[in-house]
Specification:
This protein is of the alpha/beta class and about 240 residues long. The chain has one domain (about 10-240): Rossmann fold (3-Layer(aba) Sandwich), CATH 3.40.50. The chain contains 7 helices and 9 strands. It has helices at about 15-30, 45-55, 85-95, 115-130, 190-195, 210-215, 240; strands spanning about 10, 35-40, 70, 75, 145, 170-175, 185-190, 200-205, 230-235. It has a 6-stranded parallel β-sheet with strand order 1-9-8-5-2-3. About 40% of the residues are buried. The model has no long low-confidence stretch (mean pLDDT about 95).
Length: about 240
């Protein structure tokens, strides 16, 4: 077994990870201090099952859809109907069963380029938050969902890229992605991700073992620098954790 990060819950498989994450999301929504709940979504294959599960019988009626505002931790700068788009993935996973109010899905702009798109999304976040500076006592998000790339990246914060050093902007352009597909991206920064009541990493599959090993060995990977104003938790399945 690979040494795992603090606050790790080991899951039997990807389905167990998705179900535990769904329950975690519901608990966070129920305990949210305000009328609105802000959840930051992750892209990739791992959370897709979670999103489909939330729209399925047994969960869909438990989700407070009218209270939740859904944001994106990152996205590729492609049209929203492109197969590479996180927007498309989330829409398809939710399907028609999830009664998401049209104004509650806050997409990252993809038609103005990385610089303009990053500035526009930051304005969206600031308008929702009601300020241009993050208050440590008033987190932006109730929950941030994140994944772990095979190279140790999370969101679109890739090793060696300038966005890693951004500490004032909430959103950063990523003109050159660190791995395939090599298309430009827009990502939330570490300060924005940290402004959260809860951060939850979802890690499944053998393809993530090397990144977990490197984190355990103390390597300076982007995922190591994620923090939360509240609790940071990892749900990792046994296939990913096997030595």
């Amino acid at each position: 077994m690979i040494p795992l990060p603090p606050n790790t819950e080991l899951m039997a498989d990807a389905e167990a990870t998705a179900r535990a994450a769904a329950e975690h999301l519901l608990a966070i929504a129920e305990s949210a201090p305000g009328e609105r709940v802000a959840i930051c979504l992750s892209g990739g294959s791992t959370p897709k099952r979670l999103y489909a599960l939330l729209a399925s019988p047994g969960f869909v009626e438990r989700v407070p859809w009218t209270r939740i505002h859904w944001f994106f931790g990152d996205d590729r700068v492609v049209p929203w109907d492109d197969p590479l788009s996180n927007v498309r993935m989330v829409r398809e996973a939710f399907g028609h069963a999830a009664p998401v109010p049209a104004t509650h899905l806050h997409f990252i702009p993809s038609d103005e380029g990385v610089e303009a798109g990053a500035r526009a999304y930051e304005r969206t976040l600031q308008a929702f938050y009601g300020g241009e500076r993050l208050d440590p006592d008033r987190p932006l998000f109730d929950l941030v969902l994140l994944g772990l790339g095979s190279d140790g990246h999370t969101a679109s914060l890739f090793p060696g890229k300038p966005a890693l050093a951004e500490r004032s902007a909430w959103v950063a352009p990523v003109p050159e992605a660190g791995m395939e597909p090599f298309v430009p991206r827009i990502t939330l920064t570490f300060p924005a991700l940290a402004s959260s009541r809860s951060v939850l990493f979802l890690v499944n599959g053998a393809g993530k073992r090397d990144a977990l090993r490197r984190l355990a060995a103390g390597e300076d990977l982007p995922a190591r620098h994620v923090e939360s104003a509240g609790r940071l938790t990892w749900y990792i399945d046994r296939e990913a954790a096997e030595a």
